Amino acid sequence: AADHPTSSTNAGTSINTVATQATPLQQHPIKQMSIRLESPSNILSSSIEKRLPSRLHSILLSAQEKISRIDELERQLDERIIRTRRRTCNVIDTTKSHRSSHLRCFLTHSCHDAPEDPNASTDYTYVVPKNLWVLRLEGTLLIGHLDHQSAKNRDVKTNYKAPTDDLDRAKEEDELLPILFTHYFESVEVEFQTTFSPRPHPMAKAKVVAPPTKKRRGNNSKSQPADDENAVDPKTLVVSNKFSMYWNKQQSQDAQAFDFHYKVPAPPEPRFQVHYVTAKLKLYLNQTASEKDPLFAIASVEMAREFFPKHVASLEENNAADSTTDETDADGKKRKGTDDDDATAHLPPSVDDIHIPEGLTMSQIVFAFFQYIQDHHLCDENDRSMIKCDEKLKTLFGGLEQFSFSGLQQLLITRNLIRPLYQHHPVTLTYVMREAHSTNHKLPAEKKAVLSEDTLPSPSLLQLDMNVAVPTFFPYRAREMLRRVKRRELEFTSSRTKARYLLVSQKAKDEEDAKNLLDEVVSSHSYGDEYIPAFHALAKAAPPHTEARLASHLDARLSYLLPRVQEYVASTREAWKRVGSSLLILEQKQLEEGEAEDQKGNDESKDVEMSA
After folding, report:
1. Closest CA to 472 of 92, 99, 93, 149
2. E-assigned strands of 201-333?
3. What 3-state DSSP class applies to 380?
4. What share of the chain is helix, strand, coil (3-state, %, to 5)?
5. 3-class state of residue 133 by DSSP
């Protein structure tokens, strides 16, 4: 409907066209022309009309029928446009701005040689390891942007092109492009820590201690073999200081992946080498997508035990993780522990781990309380909106006797019983990087020949799926269609003020007269030479290559042609009168000749009778 204008020009004779009901889309009113042709029956007598038949009457009837069909088509089109615009607005209001989808993320790493420091010592008695580690976080949607692809195919099929006129589009929203990977995160925190181990003595074997086994989360079907180089005594390991990185959404544009560059610090002594690097990531998801229905985390263990039993285990695990293993007593002494605990307490994690917080919507939390209140009959009999607290609710709400059910949400938030999920509980990942399992690691040929195919080290890969909210393309595209309709209306309305100034400057008319002339041109149903300057001003003021400019040019041409048509009609009328007069004279002459011949015949018959 936005691509096909409803305005048209009616041309006919002796036809009074009734304009259809004005709609927001129909800003260019249908004009009608008044060309009056007298019927041939008013000029010629019936006998002459029989002798000289004319197709003028049938042409006028055919034109009247066509214009009536055009008027009916415009009326139906206007009704269809109104219904479509109303239905589109309703669908936009009811359609969610985001859809739920799954984002699959991948964590990998690679090792490179960092540029050497010119001030550093170059007296090495050992092979210098690669000291620049790159951690890459990337991912993709399991269900891609099918709506964008569908809209693109539709544009190709309909040959749609974005308008390039000079109308003001400052208030329009930016084009909704397919979302890149980093758009789903509000901020990311990464903490690196390097663990050093003693270099193996060439003449002796290191003491082999089996590392703790834990199943790696990912898509690796092969288990990671325990190399003798990595199986060392934990008591001999040395840990570097922590190095943190932080990224937020305002620091860069959206991209396909995160690359975190970490330069490994120098070993404390030349006899140490890099054993592994531990990276702890905290992913804070973008909250813009869930503003209408945000997720909340349960912060109270007591409330979780009573209302949300499935969340008790994860809540207790989070509370346990917050407390450190090296807790101290009131006198400042460390608590007792085993020798193995003391040996590994200072070490960062050596296995991968994934923690995705679980959340609930506010409607789910309120419904759980509503079900509890109904089961225990806690509603006040006099006022059903007031809730009387039992012992569990009193303990939960700090001794509160009663509360209004409408204020339950605010009560839960103020009492810190629930918290925004991803604001306080990010997605936490622990990823262990080893040089032998990097994506660009090349095993020496002599060592590769000794190892079997099953024991070859494979690149590390940590994989996880998380729920994300993806902006839907339909509301934007529907609003774009409505903007195109509105833009078409603006093409006709925005040029009137500029056209008034053009008329005043060109014809030196009063501004009020110019305004009245433009109003008459827009609202009247006639054409003429006096309206040509107004149509030219409207065409010049309209944006280039728009329907408003083309329509104004067409109206100006019609205003020039129709008076000439009326002149030809008048001359044709005079010609018909002269033809009629000539035919009447011819008919009278023929009648007189006929009468003379009849009289002559009668005289001859009488002479014959008399001779007989």
Report:
1. 99
2. 238-239, 243-248, 257-263, 272-285, 295-298
3. coil
4. 45, 15, 40
5. strand
Work out the percent of the chain whose per-residue pLDDT is above 70.
72
Nearest to 68 by CA among 30, 94, 105: 30
Q: How far is CA 521 from the centre of its chain?
A: 41
* H helix count then E strand count, the chain: 16, 15
418 within 8 A of 296, measured Cβ to Cβ: yes
Instruction: Determine the pLDDT at residue 107.
Output: 94
Residue 453 tokens read as 């195919």
Per-residue pLDDT tens for 484-499? 777 777 777 777 888 8
Phi, psi of 433 (to 5 degrees): -110, 130
- Does position 307 have pLDDT exceeding 80, yes or no? yes
Per DSSP (E only), the strands in 444-563 are 462-471
C-alpha span between 462 and 447 (Å, rounded): 26
Sign of CA dihedral 201, 205, 209, 211: positive
Does an H or E element contain 556, and which?
helix 547-611
pLDDT number for residue 395? 87
Residues listed for the chain: 612
Backbone angles phi, psi at 287, to 5 degrees: -90, -10
Task: Give the SS3 label for residue 497.
Answer: helix
Structure tokens at 387: 């809730």
Q: Which residues contact 84 (CB under 8 A, 6 or more apart)?
A: 1
